[in-house]
Design a protein that fits this description.
The chain has 154 residues and is α+β, with helices and mostly antiparallel strands. It folds into two domains: 56 residues, K homology (KH) domain (GMP Synthetase, Chain A, domain 3, 2-Layer Sandwich); 94 residues, 2-Layer Sandwich (GMP Synthetase, Chain A, domain 3). The chain contains two helices and eight strands. The chain is elongated and about 60 Å long.
């Protein structure tokens, strides 16, 4: 079973110079469902004004993809067990530094989900831990990367 996912990344130089390396890193990310999101290099990597702070940078998108995938699997695991989730709020954080090979990489992502349950079947702390473990094991994105991923529920 193979599934195909597509995304477009669109950048245009316009009338700005290029060879001086001071061109804008602002671009457009277009996803297969039609949504468009402004993209840019991170201001931590490429200084303003060549980057756009309000746009999504690749590092943020990477952390968000891990967080979103984990959440979707966690919600599924909770529903399978008869738990009702009212709210899931993750304040995920990625750390970029040199890895063991000396290359700059997002080496560590910490997920910090705060989950609100309701209903007559509230999960125990052990059940929540188990659901997080199962969600991590099932997450397609986590299974696709070398980055260490840690879950620290709040």
């Amino acid at each position: 079973m193979a599934h195909r996912y597509t995304a477009e990344t669109i950048w245009e130089r316009g009338d700005q110079a290029f060879s001086d390396n001071r061109y804008s890193r602002q671009h457009l990310l277009r996803f297969d469902g039609g949504i468009e999101v402004p993209g840019s290099a991170s201001p931590q990597v490429v200084p303003l004004p060549m980057s756009i702070e309000a746009a999504v940078d690749p590092e943020e998108a990477f952390v968000s993809a891990i967080s979103s995938c984990h959440m979707l699997w966690f919600l599924g695991k909770a529903a399978e067990r008869g738990h009702v989730v009212d709210r899931y709020h993750d304040q995920a954080e990625g750390i970029m530094k040199r890895n063991a090979q000396g290359k700059v990489a997002v080496t560590h992502v910490t997920l910090r989900p705060q989950i609100v349950f309701s209903g007559s079947r509230l999960p125990t702390a052990d059940e929540i831990t188990t659901m997080h473990h199962e969600a991590h094991e099932a997450c397609f994105i986590a299974n696709s990367v070398k980055t260490e991923i840690v879950v620290e529920p709040r």
